């Protein structure tokens, strides 16, 4: 297994990535090896918790590509720290295209993998790209409206009003061409931040990589309720693994369960844990990663079209 830097262009923006080469040719076919494209959650970076998953896939004979969205980490893009859903999907598609063009990778055995916010992106990508061979959504955020309502119930109307005021300031700054008005990505309950569930700040900061910044443009607060990727679940035709943390206080598990029920070929796994308990070093990581490896090797072990 080896890792090298990889770059791609997404609508004129340079996107930085890592390519993990499979440690064996056990899954190799005439057209090459299968590959998994991994993306991080809301405001995260590729060095925040994803290496442990990519290394597991490479050890199992799967190539892996892990990338930073525009405006985050080592990728280009300005202004910085702006969560742009359409731009993230464009970057994800660019990473998929780059994976398909890698030497020794079978372009018809490429899968997508997303956690949290990117777990929601997985539904949109898989619904729009029938060539994808499989998809994994780990603790996915499938319904922004449900997440916003949960945060409102937990933190109260006062905190919500302060977040809205900050978001409006940032929206005005964007119209005037000024630098973004930033808010913390993770914060303690009751503070103005994107993620305020109990334990979110502690867990996020404990696994953060050197390129991660605990800040996002506040305009994201105005848009979260409109991001509802779970509505595309019925259009996902490839095998889909949905891994749900039943005690999740960040991405509502009921919404993920409902979305998975609408996907024709979904395999659903439930874990008695919270949102961040599936990351490397946490108690439910081993089970979640083992289920992913089993699912991906089962569906990507045969060349496309093989019985």
How would the blueprint of this fold be written?
Blueprint: E1 2-10, E2 13-21, E3 33-39, H1 51-59, E4 63-67, H2 85-100, E5 105-115, H3 117-128, E6 134-138, H4 144-175, E7 182-183, H5 200-207, E8 216-217, H6 220-223, E9 240-245, H7 253-262, E10 266-271, H8 285-300
Parallel strand pairs: 3-4, 3-5, 5-6, 6-9, 9-10
Antiparallel strand pairs: 1-2, 2-4, 7-8
Care to describe what's here?
The chain is α/β, with parallel strands linked by helices and 307 residues long. It is built from eight helices and ten strands. The strands form two sheets. An eight-stranded mixed beta sheet has the order 1-2-4-3-5-6-9-10, sandwiched between helices. The radius of gyration is 18 Å and the shape is globular. The protein starts with a strand and ends in a 7-residue tail after the last helix. The model has no long low-confidence stretch (mean pLDDT 95).
In short:
With 307 residues, the protein is an alpha/beta fold. 35% of the residues lie in helices and 20% in strands.
Descriptive tags:
8 helices; 35% helix; 307 residues; eight-stranded mixed sheet; alpha/beta
Alpha-carbon Rg, integer: 18 Å
Average of per-residue pLDDT values: 95
In angstroms, what separates the terminal alpha carbons?
Answer: 29 Å
Contiguous low-pLDDT stretches (5 residues minimum) are none
Tally of individual helices: 8
**Helix content percent band:** 25-40%
SSE order, as H and E?
EEEHEHEHEHEHEHEHEH
Helix-strand makeup class: alpha/beta
The biggest beta sheet reads: 8 strands, mixed
Overall geometry comes to globular
How many runs of DSSP E, i.e. beta strands? 10
Query: What proportion strand?
Result: 15-25%
Order of strands across the widest beta sheet?
1-2-4-3-5-6-9-10
């Amino acid at each position: 297994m080896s890792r090298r830097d990889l770059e791609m262009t997404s609508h004129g923006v340079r996107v930085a990535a890592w390519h993990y080469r499979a440690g064996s040719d056990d899954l190799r076919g005439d057209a090459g090896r299968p590959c998994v494209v991994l993306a991080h959650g809301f405001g995260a970076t590729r060095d925040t918790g994803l290496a442990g998953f990519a290394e597991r896939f490479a050890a199992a004979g799967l190539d892996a590509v892990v990338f930073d969205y525009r405006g985050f980490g080592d990728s280009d893009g300005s202004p910085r720290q702006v969560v742009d859903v359409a731009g993230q999907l464009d970057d994800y598609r660019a990473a998929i295209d780059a994976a398909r063009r890698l030497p020794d990778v079978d372009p018809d055995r490429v899968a997508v993998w997303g956690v949290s916010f990117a777990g929601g992106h997985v539904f949109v990508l898989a619904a729009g790209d029938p060539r994808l061979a499989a998809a994994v959504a780990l603790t996915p955020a499938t319904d922004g409206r449900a997440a916003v309502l949960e945060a409102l119930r937990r933190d109260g109307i006062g905190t919500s009003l302060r977040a809205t005021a900050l978001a409006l300031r940032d929206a005005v700054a964007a119209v005037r061409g000024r630098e973004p008005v930033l808010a913390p990505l993770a914060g303690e309950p009751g503070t103005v931040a994107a993620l305020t569930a109990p334990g979110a700040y502690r867990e996020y900061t404990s696994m953060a990589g050197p390129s991660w910044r605990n800040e996002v443009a506040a305009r994201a607060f105005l848009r979260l309720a409109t991001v509802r990727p779970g509505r595309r679940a019925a259009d996902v035709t490839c095998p889909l693994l949905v891994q749900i943390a039943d005690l999740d206080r960040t991405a509502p598990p009921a919404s993920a369960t409902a979305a998975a029920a609408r996907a024709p070929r979904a395999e659903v796994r439930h874990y008695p844990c919270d949102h961040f308990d599936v990351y490397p070093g946490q108690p439910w990581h081993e089970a979640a990663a083992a289920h992913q490896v089993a699912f991906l090797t089962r569906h990507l072990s045969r060349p496309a079209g093989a019985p």
